[in-house]
Amino acid sequence: MLGKARVDLVLAAADLPDMCGSGFCTRLHALPGQAELPVVLLIDDDRIEERLALLAVGADDVLARPVEDILLLARIRSLLHRSRAQDELPLRADARRALGLSEAPPSFDRPARIALVPLDRTRDLGAMAARLQIALGAQVRQAEPDQLLRRDAASAEAVVLVDSDADPGAGLALLSQLRTAPAQRRAALLYVTQPGRDTTAAQALDLGADDLLRAGPDALELALRLPRLIRRKRTAERHRAALRSGLRAAMIDPLTGLYNRRYALPEVSRRAQLSIQRGGQLALLVADLDHFKQVNDRWGHSAGDKVLTATAQALMAQRRGGDLVARLGGEEFLIALPDATREDALETARQLCETVARLTLPMPGPETPAHLLSPTVSIGIAMMEEPSEAVSTGLLRADRALYAAKRAGRNRVEIAPKQGFWQGPQLCAAPDPSCPPDQSAGLRGIRRASSSSSASSRSA
Prior knowledge:
Radius of gyration: 33 Å
CATH class of the largest domain: Alpha Beta
Strand content: 15-25%
Low-confidence stretches: 98-108, 419-460
Number of helices: 15
Number of strands: 18
Strand order of the largest sheet: 9-11-12-10-15-16-17
Number of domains: 2
Shape: elongated
CATH superfamily of the largest domain: Reverse transcriptase/Diguanylate cyclase domain
CATH topology of the largest domain: Alpha-Beta Plaits
């Protein structure tokens, strides 16, 4: 039946008519796609040897009859929650492949970090920690609750809470705190109670414990349960890291590290609406590298990438707290200035032009000394002050202003009027007097590194 039907959990007797519990677990987990299927087995007598043997072949829990309903139902809820969380991981992997994102490589199998926490402060778990360290090859230490809850505490991969013999349930409050503690909220939590405390055990599961020991702390049983908990935790961490990487790849330009067009346009729209609602406006600046094709044609695309990256860094260096800088594509950049006036936008654009023009980038080649390139940008500005104006319309106006700046000689700022005629072009950087007007504001310098280079070589 399990080979044909999809189930979420198996609850079975360990003494089935046609096979033993160990054989059942082994055959079940060998079925395609069932390696992580939760299995709870019921035994007649709570014999530790039998329980450990069944845990060793893959049972998630082994309960002795008769089982209290409160404990059984809490265990089923906990395992189903874990199973559903694991079911999401293949869906996320499929989504990454559909987006063209690669799977995160497996990380180095480092020693696990395990904390043993006795709720009875007089209890010494040092000997158990030493046995687990040898058995698991892990870093195992006894810790105080206050140490784990500190914001700067070292994070553990697994925390074993050993409840107090004299005060049953003393660890439940700490369990809840660990689930929200910054350093430990991702840790696997294993709760240890004494026999006969089924209500406390059920509460621990409902409060977020990942696993239970109900017969007190036992090093052998911990050595069986902890590796599975840590393996599942690491798998979940890899998937979360891959998801974060995928989200970043969806919104960040990989070359420059700036936001990409897909993220920037909706975000500019949102910021524009906020600025207009506050009675202000948003300035859209579109910056384009001058004569960029000449760089690619003469020195190759790797040199062009170097120019793009350096320009992006220069633009980011002038960014205010609320500004947005993005790469629209090719050699074109977008800068959004919320709550900026017309004068603020013009001044910021001039500063950006000057900052980029101060760059001095050595170009590859056999020449000695190397050629130095000083790129420039032209910038078009559009002020968004009407709530009904779409970002695409604002970008179109900024693009027209950009082309006007290009026609006027480059390395200039042009601001788009709402309607009617254009304002005069605004020169961003002082032109080289030895160059014609339309070239002095372009690629201002392909200069040699030597201080004796002539004016003609600087403007070549």
